[in-house]
Amino acid sequence: MQNPFIDISEDGTALISPVKSAHYSVNRLNHRPGKPRRQGMAEDVVDLFAEHGFFVWGGYWNYPVDYQHFQVGPRSFVEALVAMEPEEGEKLLNRFIDMYRNCRKINRSEYDLVKVRAECIDVVLAGMSEFVISTEE
């Protein structure tokens, strides 16, 4: 319930699923005056997921917004991983995990950790963009 899927219809109406979450968790701020801290928000685990190689989060998307969606990289990168031998794919993914962790380490003194996470993920995704499966034979 804390991590709704938000779709937008053609007329601009927000479609929120599950419906119960519309009144509870569309506002993603966790620190609000006079309100208790909410448990179970995806934002609490985004860093943990990124540290383990899940660099794409549906909470970053403009449309649709899917707070429960995490994946290792863009579709082209995932397809490249699937086409590799498992050991080779694991090494490649670990290379990007190390790249992300090193970026975070270099920028650890930065106050805005959300900004640092986004910038480090941008670096990783730029590196992943070279992995595109050719459809030509």
UniProtKB/TrEMBL annotation:
Molecular functions per Gene Ontology: peptidase activity
> Residue ranges of the Peptidase M15C domain?
35-72
**Pfam families listed in its UniProt record:** Peptidase_M15_4
From the record, give the transmembrane residue ranges: none
Q: What InterPro entries does the record tag this protein with?
A: Peptidase_M15C, Zn_M74/Hedgehog-like
Q: What is this protein called?
A: Peptidase M15C domain-containing protein
